[in-house]
Specification:
The protein is mainly β and about 950 residues long. The protein folds into 5 domains: about 20-190, Sandwich (Jelly Rolls), CATH 2.60.120; about 195-290, Immunoglobulins (Immunoglobulin-like), CATH 2.60.40.10; about 310-545, TIM Barrel; about 550-655, Immunoglobulin-like (Sandwich), CATH 2.60.40; about 665-930, Beta-galactosidase, Chain A, domain 5. The protein contains 11 helices and 62 strands. The strands form 16 sheets. It has a 9-stranded antiparallel β-sheet. A hairpin with a 5-residue loop joins strand 33 (about 510) and strand 34 (about 520). Helix 4 (about 330-340) crosses helix 5 and helix 8 runs parallel beside helix 9. It starts with a helix and ends in a 22-residue tail after the last strand. Belongs to the glycosyl hydrolase 2 family. It is an enzyme of class 3 (hydrolase). One of its GO terms (biological process) is lactose catabolic process. Keywords: Calcium, Glycosidase, Hydrolase, Signal.
Length: about 950
């Protein structure tokens, strides 16, 4: 025990010794949005202005109750008066410095401050005012501080810059404009002789180079460089001699057969730099890095480690509703995990460099990063831009995840800055221009924004690689996963297609401290995300997950001769499918009249992982048991080599005809049926229930559940949602124990009502269409405010569009009623309203009782109530008549951008064309109103007496 105690003391001593030789950090603010420190604060305008108070730092002062809010597009509204949004905040903070720092170089570091920042230490200017909000900057203050005494830090921050180019590049933009010291501030102390920064270039062939930037070299005479793998094994080392006054030295090493870094295999190494005077350590620092080679092969593609890679990317703002761009490492981790959960491999840091922890996490979890210099649609001046490029690249150059530098966005490119990146990036990464006009390719890559499907085809036939840095704008429910399948197939199968970056990751909703903490998305400006502000998942999230799945399975329904073999394509770039796991489940689904949802697992098993190389095709043999057909559903889950689920596919094993027979089997009691009529109605009767059918149109007019007049307000259907309904003839007749009413219309369409002794009201309808139609099928009316929830057997739980059917799986789902409008408060998902896919049966729980509807035929869509995909001056796309519909075809959805509005979606690709219909469509629906007597074996499902409406 004494031995281990001695070892522990020795390790602690060594740790202290190492710490004293390395950079020491003293935080003056908190480290993130959750860990802040209180400073003194004064602001000249807006809320709480004109007097000193306290503020938590780091933060945006708006989120602390100071100043006023503005969105970058306010300049469109206010024009020259936009300047009134400028606010100036004064910060004061007292700090002491350890005596042990005497004789060391002391810097004060700001990781980000919005935006012009003047710093004073003990009344003395630390240096020139820093301009540019998103960049780390520092001042040496060794000669301005006092040891053993209190020091005073004063910081003056102007929300708008005195440099017009900064405002043009950063502040007059399509995002929230906030003020204040929003990232950490700290002091760093180093020995006078130290390594100030390093630039690393580690190639896939194992060559390692580093520029080692030195400061104050006087007595130090060598640098030791050691490379370690992930298990901390030393894999290479060397010493480099240095001379007094040296400011930069380069070292070269070679590692044999290194484990390479890619987004699929994020293998990291560590390099340790030790500055020595003979054998005495003067200073030590270390960096993580990855071996990987980036190439742009003109007219071919983007290659990582010699393999062509296509970007499955998304644009991401640094954002959290309560704290704006002041975030935490946990938020960064969550965001990277969510991006990877969508089976994406890339992220664009729009429109500025992110906080440092985000890039570290992209390194370790594996994402390709496009790191962007700000410049929303206008550029920095050359003089200022050169400083900001240096600050950005020096901070970020050693991250293997960063594979591109982006010099501004949509016209915010200062061409004089293109050559600046390589001055500080030893690996000389490619520089791109994220633009929105054709013909602006740079470095062999065209990044043009928001091209439609057919113009994309033309670009891909040209000279340049095409990688749109923004496409399928996801405002409201449009864009995102909608139409993505067509775009992705286009890029995947094109030689010059390099994938792209969807716009965007989250709805940029801000908690307004001036409006009772309501979340504000600034009308149509900021709800552009695949997720809500707190990362609530929209339907596109799951569609993207399936579309971008590197295990590609296209089998929509199981063929009649299915033998347990599933075709598969490997859409990984570096991973063999034998490194993934495949597990299946056979399940039985919950029944319509039970009070449960989901499924029961009957049995599970593992499939042998097929040996399928990247970009190749093969088969998965499930090895199902002989009796697999006796079950109702099959699930297949693919898991990656890190144990993360890639996707779960589901197939139903029973036809709707078989399922509808189960529907009837639940109804054990039978009653005689009859019909009576008056001048305007046929009234079908069974037990105490009555169904009134109009003689003039053949539509259901009313439903009565008992002799006391308890009414169900389901009525006015089936109305054909496309075509006319001019009645030609109607008659009532008996067929065995059933009573029927048959209506024929002048265009040949027909409706047949049939009341069965078991209480099922059956509806058979036929209609013919020839042409292009947004939707096809029939509708009914029912008051939306009476509905409590919906339960159904089918795809779900999110609604779909014709061009976004992906991502929804087959199950018994249940959604509580909500009025969520995608992209707007309160972000309750799944949305209750919408089109739902492949429904076998639906049960609405209402204030009047239950309404249960089943179908005999396959592939029925259900429309629930009134909703729109895009909310402009009007809502789009247009809706069928009525408010509950049973459909054979539903509309596609476009994006908010002009070329797709007004329901014109066909430019987005084949899936986005309107429905081309030609023929006769037939469907049988089964209705049951109320709750049946399910017999003794189902007594566990009995419920309290149903609610009835009262005044």
């Amino acid at each position: 025990m004494k031995y281990f105690t001695k070892i522990f003391v020795l390790l602690c001593a060594c740790s202290q010794l190492l710490f004293s030789q390395s950079k020491e950090i003293l935080f003056l603010t908190g480290k993130d949005a959750e860990h802040t420190k209180e400073w003194d604060f004064w602001i000249n305008g807006g809320r709480k202005s004109g007097s000193w108070s306290k503020i938590q730092v780091p933060s945006h002062w708006e989120q602390q109750g100071f100043g006023s809010y503005n969105y970058g597009r306010d300049y469109v509204t206010y024009g020259k008066n936009f300047k009134f949004h400028d606010e100036t905040g004064l910060y004061k903070h007292k700090f002491t410095i350890p005596n042990s720092w005497k004789g060391k170089t002391v810097n004060i570091v700001f990781e980000g401050s919005m935006t012009d920042t003047e710093v004073k230490i003990n009344g003395k200017l630390a240096g020139e005012i820093h301009q540019g909000a998103f960049y780390e900057f520092k001042y040496e203050i060794s000669d301005k501080i006092q040891f053993g005494k209190e020091n005073i830090l004063e910081v003056k921050v102007s929300k708008m810059s005195s440099d017009k180019s900064v405002n043009n590049a950063e502040r007059l933009a399509d995002y929230w404009i906030l003020g204040g010291i929003f990232r950490p501030v700290y002091l760093e102390a180093t020995p006078k002789e130290h390594i100030s920064w390093t630039a690393i270039d580690a190639k896939a062939d194992g060559t390692f180079r580093s520029d080692i930037h030195l400061k104050g070299i006087n007595s130090a005479n060598n640098i030791k460089v050691e490379l370690f793998d992930a298990e901390n094994n030393l894999v290479a080392e060397s010493r480099l001699q240095i001379l007094k006054g040296d400011t930069v030295k380069q070292i070269r090493l070679l590692v044999k057969n290194p484990k390479l870094w890619t987004a699929e295999t994020p293998n990291l190494y560590k390099v340790k730099f030790t500055l020595n005077k003979n054998r005495k350590k003067i200073f030590q620092t270390e960096e993580k890095f990855g071996f990987r080679t980036i190439e742009i092969r003109k007219s071919d593609g983007i290659f990582i480690n010699g393999t062509k890679v296509k970007m499955k990317g998304i644009n991401r703002h640094v954002w959290w509703p309560e704290t704006g761009r002041t975030v935490t490492e946990n938020i960064d981790v969550m965001d990277v995990q969510l991006i990877k959960e969508m089976n994406m491999n890339a992220v664009r840091c729009s429109h500025y460099p992110p906080n440092k922890s985000f890039l570290r996490i992209c390194d370790s979890l594996g994402l390709y990063v496009l790191d962007e210099l700000a410049g929303w649609q206008k550029k920095y001046s050359t003089e200022l831009g050169k400083k900001l490029v240096k600050e950005m690249v020096v901070r970020d150059a050693n991250h293997p995840s960063v594979i591109f530098w982006s010099n501004g966005n949509e016209g915010g490119h200062n061409f004089d800055l293109d050559a600046e990146f390589a001055k500080y990036d030893l690996s000389n990464r490619p520089v791109i221009h994220a633009h929105h006009k054709p013909g602006n390719a740079f470095n062999g890559i065209d990044c043009n924004h928001y091209e439609d499907y057919y113009s994309t085809q033309k670009i891909l036939e040209g000279e340049d690689i095409y990688m749109p840095t923004e496409f399928l704008h996801a405002q409201d429910d449009g864009g995102g996963g909608t139409s993505l399948a067509d775009y992705w197939e286009l890029h995947w199968n094109s030689k010059k297609g390099a994938g792209g970056f969807l716009w965007s990751f989250v709805d940029e909703g801000l908690v307004r401290t001036d409006f009772n903490n309501q979340i504000d998305v600034n009308a149509i400006n900021a709800p552009d995300g695949i997720l809500g502000p707190h990362r609530e998942k929209e339907g596109s999230f799951y569609a993207i997950r399936e579309i971008y799945s590197p295990v590609k399975i296209d089998l929509k329904t199981l063929p009649d001769d299915f033998n347990g073999t599933i075709p598969v394509e490997n859409r990984y770039h570096f991973t063999n499918l034998k490194d993934c796991r495949f597990e299946w489940k056979l399940v039985n689904f919950k029944k319509p009249f039970s009070y449960e949802f989901g499924f029961d697992i009957v049995t599970t098993g593992k499939a042998e992982s097929p040996d399928v190389q990247p970009a190749q095709k093969g088969k998965i043999n499930l090895n199902l048991p002989e009796n697999w057909k006796e079950n109702e559903g099959l699930l297949l889950t693919a898991t990656d080599s890190f144990g993360k689920e890639i996707y779960t596919w589901t197939w139903k094993l029973k036809s709707n005809d078989e399922i509808s027979k189960q529907f009837s089997k639940s109804l054990i009691k039978k009653f005689p049926v009859s019909v009576v009529e008056n001048d305007s109605l046929f009234i079908l009767k069974s037990d105490e229930k009555e169904y009134a059918i109009g003689k003039k149109d053949g539509l259901l007019k009313s439903v009565f559940l008992d002799k006391k007049g308890k009414k169900m307000s389901f009525r006015n259907g089936p109305v054909f949602v496309s075509g006319t309904m001019e009645l030609a003839s109607i008659k009532s007749f008996a067929e065995g124990q059933n009573q029927l009413i048959k209506a024929i219309y002048k265009n040949g369409n027909k409706i047949i009502w049939k009341l069965n002794p078991n209480g099922v009201l059956e509806l058979h309808y036929e209609y013919s269409l020839s042409g292009d139609y947004q939707f096809a099928g029939v509708s009914f009316n029912y008051p939306e405010n009476y509905v409590i929830n919906a339960k159904w057997l089918g795809k779900g739980p999110y609604h779909v569009w014709k061009n976004r059917l992906q991502g929804q799986t087959y199950n018994v789902w249940q959604n509580l009623k909500n009025s969520t409008r995608t992209g707007q408060s309160p972000w309750i998902y799944p949305e209750f309203k919408g089109y739902f896919d492949d429904v076998s049966w639906l049960q609405l729980d209402t204030a009047e009782g239950k309404i249960t509807v089943g179908t005999k035929e396959e592939k029925m869509f259900v429309r629930l109530f009134d909703f729109y995909g895009i909310y402009g001056a009007e809502g789009y796309p247009k809706l069928p008549s009525g408010n509950i519909s049973f459909l054979d075809a539903i509309p596609p959805l476009g994006t908010v951008l002009a070329f797709n509005i007004n329901d014109k979606t066909e430019t987005l690709g084949p899936e986005s064309e309107t429905n081309h219909l030609n023929g006769t469509f037939k469907r049988t629906l089964y209705f049951y109103f109320g709750l049946p007597d399910l017999g003794d074996e189902n007594k566990q499902f009995t419920m309290p007496k149903e609610n009835i409406l009262t005044d």
